[in-house]
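User: Some background: our group keeps a shared notebook of sequences we're curious about, and every so often someone picks one and asks for a predicted structure to add to the entry. Today it's my turn. The entry only has the sequence so far, pasted here. Could you supply the structure so I can complete it?
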Amino acid sequence: QVQLVESGGGLVQAGGSLRLSCAASERTFSNYVMGWFRQRPGNKREFVAAINWSGANTYYADSVKGRFTISRDNAKNTVYLQMNSLKPEDTAVYYCAARESYVLNTRDAEYHYWGQGTQVTVSS
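Assistant: Of course. Here's the predicted structure to add to the notebook entry:
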């Protein structure tokens, strides 16, 4: 069982930046694809970004491409989401997720472990 704990959320003005972190309890963290998802008010949870085990391959939702960067540090069992040029529509609860696979995936049903979420609020 992998436990994931997100941190780094908060309130920021439009145009600002935040970095989310997700710490995993699993010693074999490098065996997992890691993803970030978000749930905006009144919407379903949606894919944001994913990264493969080595960090060499990443994939982003079109809505965040060029503004968000996913990265990981396997020595620290941590995945990050650097969010720049934030917009009010980025306001959401952000979730970290782990997938027992080496293949990236954008579907939340394909992820096996989830964090509790962290709130990001972008004011206009």
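Suggested note for the entry: Residues 98 and 113 are 5 Å apart (CA to CA). The chain has a mean pLDDT of 96.
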